[in-house]
Amino acid sequence: MLELYHYWDSFCSFKVRLCLEEKELEWQGHYVDLMRFENLRPQYLELNPNGVVPTLVHDERSIIESSIINEYLDDRFPAVALRPRDPFELAQMRLWVKHEEEQLFLAVRPASLNLMMKQVLGRYTEEELDRHLATHPRPRQVAQLKQLFKAPFDPAAVESSRKMLAAAFKKMDASLAKQPWLAGASYSLADIACAPVLDRVEALGMSALWEKLPAMKDWVQRLTSRPAYHRAKPRDEFRLPKALPIPSEVK
Ligand SMILES: N[C@@H](CCC(=O)N[C@@H](CS)C(=O)NCC(=O)O)C(=O)O
Questions:
Q1: Which residues in the chain land under pLDDT 70?
Q2: With 0-12 CB in 10 A as exposed, 13-18 as middle and 19+ as buried, what is 125?
Q3: Which of 15, 39, 58, 205 is deepest in the core (most CB within 10 A)?
Q4: Residues in contact with ligand 1 (CB, 6 Å cut-off)
């Protein structure tokens, strides 16, 4: 039995759901509501001491970190292989997974927080936040998190997301102009790692960012029309609040 502790509208959870769905594996979901801080409850911290989603539980053992979970799934269930066999393409695949972890994931955060999450997180009182964050595994970050949740809307943060995403997509477009999938000839964990950003960028009202990038636009079309993408994407009833419109000062 594969059990996935996940949040429907989380980037990293989507990445693992997409891998499970591409492999057509049966999995049981346990919903961890990040907007209610269920990721910081002691029972969950026993599975994932970092207090983040996703966590895979397989054969009664827990595996954390989305990229590592996806490699584990590819090792344990190789029938649908999602890693290139060619060592050079495998190295490219790992670089694109790193691109997701170090660029895409960080790029969407400021806009997601300001345009979507603050609509929920900003409503918690100081006392409620103290109670929910008391079990946070990185106590030194708590004061900064509280400040971020309560801070007024920050257009500069949205602009910084837009700039980082534009640079990251340009890099992807250049590579996709030479080959159909990020790591080469075949669809791989690299495409799976970078796919969740597409849904979030659309939800943020920023999909114009790939309109003028032909190879990226074509990849978006091919990727989002895969049946597994539809099964894995956030269910409408579990989405974050609709994004606020992008203010005019953000070009
Ligand atoms: N490197 C981790 C990142 C996990 C992560 O930050 N997950 C986010 C959702 S995409 C989360 O749980 N955030 C809750 C929090 O930071 O409190 C992975 O890839 O699994």
A1: 251
A2: exposed
A3: 15
A4: 10-12, 34, 39, 51-53, 65-67
User: Using CA atoms, how far apart are residues 142 and 229, in angstroms rounded to an integer?
Assistant: 35
105-112 vs 11-22: helix crossing angle, rounded to 10:
130
**Residue (of 222, 183, 175, 224) closest to 202 by Cα position:** 224
- Report pLDDT for 249: 75
CA 124–ligand 1 middle distance (angstroms): 20
What atom in ligand 1 is closest to the CA of residue 64?
20
Q: What's the rounded Cα separation, in Å, for the pair 70 and 210?
A: 26
Say how many Å lie between the CA of residue 7 and the centre of ligand 1.
Answer: 10
Residue 45, burial from CB neighbour count under 10 angstroms (0-12, 13-18, 19+): middle
**Tokens encoding 27:** 């999995």
pLDDT of residue 124: 97
Q: How far apart are CA 89 and CA 106, in angstroms?
A: 25
Residue nearest to atom 13 of ligand 1 (CA): 52
Quick one: pLDDT at residue 225?
Answer: 98
Q: Report the pLDDT value the prediction gives residue 221, as an integer from 0 to 100.
A: 98
Distance (angstroms) between ligand 1 centre and the Cα of 53 equals: 5
d(CA 7, CA 121): 16
H/E segment holding residue 175? helix 155-176
Residue nearest to atom 6 of ligand 1 (CA): 52
- CB crowding 63-97: b at 16 or more within 10 Å, else e: bbbbbebbbbbbeebeeeebbbeeeebbebbbebb
